[in-house]
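Dear colleagues,

As part of the handover before I leave the project, I'm documenting each prediction I ran so the next person doesn't have to rerun anything. This entry is a single chain, and its sequence is reproduced below.
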Amino acid sequence: MKITIEPAIGADAIEMFYDLYVAAFAPLQIHAAARHMLSFAEFEAEMTDPRIDKYVAWGDDGEPIALTTLTKDFTAVPWISPEYFAARYPEHHARGALFYLGYTLVHPEHEGSAVFARISSRVVRRMLEARAVCAFDVCGYNDATHRIGKGIAALNRRVDMTMQTVDVQTYYAAEFGAAATARLAAEAAAERDVADALAAEAVPV
């Protein structure tokens, strides 16, 4: 297996990686409030955008088996604010050491192998050499289910790195109508029952 950094991915590989991308991200459509699924056109544009480095792991047969996207140009990532990160890390931004990691995809036949660790170690080595900041985002479902944040934070046991949460977006939903009213009434009744039970058990002084 070898790993290369490509400015663009060929059409045949784009189709294969998009299939992997859909398999990885489609379940999030019912687990995450934010849209995670890029259309094929959006994905293709990203794969051919020279501002975004593509770390590609190639199998012994010459076929791509894993992909990581990484960029220093935050304007290439439409869902983040470049100004926010530039203001938060002005020194890193000034010397071109501020990166954003999009995602990593691994072919199902190679999941659980060393390919994820190998491609990740290339990114980590680049960050260490540049004394960089590498930002990324993970939805709550993936973080809770796959412990991605904790897994990356654990790198500080082996390398000079610290990690912190820099922002959180919370989605609220206000429910109106009979169902909501009935639920609120039931919750209020339950609270009254608890209060009555506590009052009954109280000892007069």
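Strands lie at 2-6, 52-58, 64-71, 98-106, 133-135. The mean pLDDT is 88.

All the best with the project,
I.
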